[in-house]
Write a structure and sequence with these properties.
Order of helices and strands: EHEEEHEEEEEEEEEEEEEEHH
Radius of gyration: 34 Å
Strand content: 25-35%
Number of domains: 2
Number of helices: 4
Distance between the termini: 110 Å
Helix content: 25-40%
Structural class: alpha+beta
Number of strands: 18
């Protein structure tokens, strides 16, 4: 098992990510721990019931990138770290500005050009900061396959329990981001959540052509935009005999409308998923949510109809003297008796 720890101390990561000043923070007070492990191809597979597992099936050795949805506490921690870093950046700015002003005065006296440029003051708006999601991101594949067979590669990853989003197929900023339509799913402790990643080639109208090899007529330069990424249920080949079968569950996919293109990768989106994800031009449609809304509307309409029917019956029962109205069981009996007596009297005459 290859254990990879990506505990993100914001102190380190912001140095590479911030566009302006990026001072270091002296302690690990704001560190976010996120540990994920690659489960390798071995006869015995040690599984931790306190951990979640993602079993990804692919047609060949290809990578797929995911990130865990941050908790509110983690987002707050990120903001606190940013506030501290911004305060230190402002202190450094004042020092840099003082040194720059001294160079200006010295250059004026010597009649020479000022060396260096005037420092830019970091502000709440301009101070860059890496998104917390990047600290919770990892790629599965293309190496360290858990199992492989003809047309199927399996990757097994140990992750903390939580909600995970498929981000795309990226490596060092290259590849494609499912920024304009993707899915998320819950990975529970003591479960192996299964899903399959694939791709389908599209024609110039965006309609599917085929999976597998690149079709004729698809230029290498536009290959990335002529293939749609697919997330779908894993097939029976994913049910490896080494894994406890009662741990295996299909990912319950939920549409995600948009994720930022943090790495400047090619922008793409998942192909529609029957019963889960659809599109109306560039609008993401949550199929399950729409079906649920339709069912709720039908239930509401049925309840309204039942209420109207009950109201009509109640109104009829509470209006004496109206044709068909019944005031009370006793009055109905008395009225019936009088009718019989009158009829009898007529007969006797």
């Amino acid at each position: 098992m290859n254990r990879m720890k990506t505990g993100w101390a914001f102190v380190v990561s912001m140095i590479a990510a911030c566009a302006i000043a990026s001072p270091a923070i002296a302690d690990d007070e704001f560190e976010i721990e996120f540990e994920t492990s690659i489960m390798k191809d071995k006869d015995e597979v040690p599984l931790d019931p306190n951990k979640a597992y993602i079993l990804l099936q692919t047609p060949t050795a290809i990578p797929a990138t995911f990130f865990r949805v941050p908790s509110d506490a983690e987002r707050e921690l990120s903001q606190q770290a940013r506030a501290v870093a911004l305060a230190e950046a402002k202190e450094d700015y004042l020092k840099d500005l003082a040194r720059y002003q001294k160079r200006v005065e010295s250059s004026k006296k010597r009649g020479k050009k000022v060396r260096g440029s005037k420092p830019i003051e970091p502000t709440e708006t301009s101070f860059g900061w890496p998104p917390v999601e990047q600290s919770l991101m990892f790629s599965i594949g293309p190496f360290n396959r858990f199992a492989k067979s003809k047309g199927s590669s399996l990757y097994l990853q140990e992750v903390p329990p939580g909600e995970y989003v498929y981000y795309g197929t990226t490596s060092a900023g290259l590849g494609a981001c499912a920024c304009m339509g993707t899915v998320k799913f819950q990975a529970e402790a003591g479960q192996i959540t299964m899903l399959r990643y694939d791709g389908v080639w599209l024609d110039k109208n965006g309609d599917p052509i085929s999976r597998g090899r690149k079709p004729e007529g698809v230029d290498t330069n536009d290959a990335l935009v002529r293939v749609a990424m697919i997330i779908e249920p894993a097939d029976m080949n994913a049910r490896d005999a080494r894994l406890p079968q009662d741990w295996l569950v299909d990912a319950q996919l939920v549409p995600v409308e948009f994720v930022p293109n943090w790495f400047g990768a090619e922008i793409n989106r998942l192909a529609p998923i029957p019963g889960v994800l659809a599109y109306q031009r560039d609008q993401v449609i949550d199929v399950q949510a729409e079906l649920a809304a339709e069912r709720e509307a039908a239930r509401a309409a049925e309840a309204a109809q039942d209420a109207q029917t009950a109201s009509t019956l109640q109104s009829a029962q509470s209006s004496p003297g109206q044709p068909g109205a019944v005031d009370s069981p006793g009055e109905a009996t008395a009225g019936g008796a009088e009718t019989v007596i009158e009829a009898s009297a007529g007969d006797s005459n």
